Amino acid sequence: MSALNVDVAIVGGGFGGSLLALALRRAGLRVALIDRGRHPRFVIGESSTPIANLVLKDLCREYDLPNVAPLAKYGTWQATHPQLVSGIKRGFSYFHHEAGQPFVADAKHSTELLVAASSSEQHSDTHWLRQDVDAFLFREAGAAGAICFEQCEVGEIEPVVGHVFNVPLKHRHVENVPHELRTRFVVDGSGEGRFLAQRLGIEDRTHELRTNSRTVFAHFANVTRWKRCLESRGIDTAEHPFDCDHAALHHVFDGGWMWQLRFNDETVSAGFVQDLNRSERPNLSAAAEWESWLRRFPAIREQFANANVVRPEGGLRSTGRLQRKLAHVVGGWWAMLPNTAGFIDALHSSGIAHTLCGIERLARILIRSLGRDDLESQLREYEHCVLAEVEMIDLLVSGCFAAMGDFRRFATATMLYFAAATSYERARLASGGEFRPAFLLANDEQWFVVVRRMCDRLYEARSIEQFEREMVEAIRPFNVVGLCDPNLRNMYRHSALPEN
Ligand SMILES: Cc1cc2nc3c(=O)[nH]c(=O)nc-3n(C[C@H](O)[C@H](O)[C@H](O)COP(=O)(O)OP(=O)(O)OC[C@H]3O[C@@H](n4cnc5c(N)ncnc54)[C@H](O)[C@@H]3O)c2cc1C
């Protein structure tokens, strides 16, 4: 039996665990990265945002990661790593559907909302084919000196002496993996695996969340472009600020929504999300449920008329409730990455950016404070921030869910998310690298008050006109890109992040 000594053991080698490992290695810490699976493997959660790319770029600068840096923009990604499948994401597009009806549009775009995120293809955000990106980052972590284990289970973690812990490892198939790993700190990046929550019996607080949703999803080939569907129905797309398929495309309807993310290999990640606050999970197989959604929405059915599932290997996947929130995010010798501590929903693509913000904060804490007296207080601050971010995302997303049946109300509710995101982006750009605010301004008390109030007003406001007027006033201090402008008729071009 051999023992390995490291400073930080990271459980979970998704992109989050691997990027943290890379940052810590560059700062000279000894790192082990352990995953129970094996790369490349299918993962859902693919659409990046301007915030994600700003943070990724800063992480690459701070920790000198020239191989990873090109992934922060579509143009540099294509030039440097074309073998890693990605897709162009110029922004967010939303389309309203009525069950049993064809999709209709009008000159006011009252059933459409397009919000630009990037100003050109070159500088655009991306969809990440996660199996490619995660495998790449895992390899990069190994190349930087992290000791990487795949197909490894972690046993009971026990204190050895002082601040050193024993992390027993058991490889699923190979005998000669060290059975003992000794570490000073453990990071849980296991996501829904909830590794530490299970080991330490950490209280589950999911019941506190407002959002209550689930999904059925897969990757498909032969999905007709939505733009083509619109044009074949004579719907003019000339006023769209970007190609609506080069986006996180959302089909929105009473009781749920659907995401579509198109990759360069012409496959599409797609999933129907059901609002469990409005209806119960159907007692159907994933395939039968998928068909039942398509039957309800004829325009989407048309888009999928020739589609076939290409990933994951087992076909369509169906989930229970997606949300999670834990009572604690840190302890004296451990911390969780954001996606392990809490997750809300795919709406508005907040997950990758949230994870990256957490990596940025946690890496600095571990590099500066591991082994020092202020570690615990730093970790408490991190915990406070991550939980506030989870609460903020929950408010922003649940407000939109509540309005999904009424597109005008829904479009107004999304303005809260876009105000938070664009304010954060601009503040970060202006800060020149030393940026402190929490993701989506979750540490800004004034902003929290606005979001909580407007989520309540969503139900209370007498009319949509009144709700819209109140929204304009409420977000005014945070409205840096001209949101809530009726003259733009739901077509937001100037929300795109300035080139940087
Ligand atoms: C349906 C859905 C759609 C989403 N869409 C988007 C989107 O469009 N945009 C976006 O930004 N975010 C999205 N997300 C969120 C996004 O998936 C997460 O933010 C992201 O996966 C976080 O990455 P991670 O590396 O922290 O965790 P994960 O990707 O969850 O990786 C966790 C890793 O830990 C490993 N693991 C688990 N348990 C153990 C264990 N006990 N021991 C060892 N290893 C373990 C797993 O094998 C895995 O490799 C979505 C999430 C869902 C559920």
Describe this entry's structure for a reader.
This protein has 500 residues and is of the alpha/beta class. It folds into three domains: 3-43 and 129-207 and 323-381, FAD/NAD(P)-binding domain (3-Layer(bba) Sandwich); 86-127 and 212-318, 2-Layer Sandwich (D-Amino Acid Oxidase, Chain A, domain 2), CATH 3.30.9; 406-492, no CATH class. Helix content is 36%, strand content 21%. The chain contains 14 helices and 24 strands. The strands form five sheets. Strands 5, 6, 14, 15, 16, 17, 18, 19 and 24 form a nine-stranded mixed sheet that branches. It has a six-stranded mixed sheet with strand order 8-3-2-13-22-21. A hairpin with a 5-residue loop joins strand 16 (256-262) and strand 17 (268-275). Helix 1 packs parallel to helix 4, helix 1 (15-26) runs parallel beside helix 10 and helix 13 runs antiparallel to helix 14. 50% of the residues are buried. Flavin-adenine dinucleotide binds at residues 11-17, 34-37, 43-47, 154, 189-191, 193, 195, 215, 271, 322, 337, 339, 346, 349-353, 355.
